[in-house]
Specification:
Blueprint lengths: L3 E7 L5 H12 L3 E5 L12 H5 L11 H12 L4 E7 L4 E9 L4 E5 L7 H4 L4 E6 L2 H15 L4 H20 L8 E4 L5 H16 L1
Parallel strand pairs: 1-5, 1-6, 2-5, 6-7
Antiparallel strand pairs: 3-4
Helix pairs in contact: 5-6
Length: 204
């Protein structure tokens, strides 16, 4: 079976997860989702206070080589044990989750188009393009409600690392996309186009 691997990139809070979750809901078990965020490197050797100060928006923060290996395994039809990241402590949880191969594999992450070896694995490369003010507001809401962060820490992280790394690495990676989608999962025309492409793949 030929598997369709779709990479969904874009800035933090752009709507990548909304898009991938929508496709997962529509196609169910025909779709597997794998998140670059789960491949943040383990930092067991650093205390929590030091982990809080790390730059999590630089390519070096990710174990992208492991994701590349896992995607190659999934494409070959073999399940993988994906690490599970705990955002509340800025470290891997020590747990893994089994990710099984499916006809369609969705890869979600801010920097997945930055790495050439990784992006060359994608059959379709999507960049979700959303205004910076919308992205930062979404990030504030997500990080304070879901990740236990204070408003002050979210703002500090955005100004010190998220914004400059977005400008240095994320935004430039847009040039590698096959499709650029304004508003992500809230763009019904784009969603319909992607759904039709997935349906076409599943029917062959």
């Amino acid at each position: 079976m030929k598997r369709l691997i779709i990479g969904v990139a874009g800035g933090s809070g752009s709507g990548k997860s909304t898009l991938t979750n929508h496709l997962k809901e529509v196609f169910g078990d025909a779709v597997t989702v794998i998140n670059h965020d789960d491949y943040y490197k383990a930092q067991d050797d650093k205390p929590y206070e030091e982990r809080c100060l790390c730059n999590y928006d630089h390519p070096d923060a990710f174990d992208t080589d492991l994701m590349i290996y896992h995607l190659s395994e999934l494409r070959a039809g073999r399940a993988v044990e994906c690490p599970v990241y705990d955002f509340t402590v800025h470290n891997r949880s020590g747990l893994t989750k089994t990710v099984s191969p499916a006809p369609v594999i969705l890869v979600d992450g801010i920097l997945i188009l930055e790495n050439k070896t990784l992006r060359d694995l994608f059959d379709i490369k999507i960049y979700v393009d959303t205004d910076a003010d919308v992205r930062v507001l979404r990030r504030i809401r997500r990080d304070t409600k879901e990740r236990g962060r204070s408003l002050e820490s979210v703002i500090s992280q955005y100004l010190n690392t998220v914004k400059p790394m977005h400008e240095a690495f994320v935004e430039p990676s847009k040039k590698y996309a096959d499709i650029i989608i304004p508003a992500g999962g809230r763009n019904p025309v784009a969603l319909e186009m992607i759904e039709n492409r997935v349906k076409e793949h599943l029917s062959t």
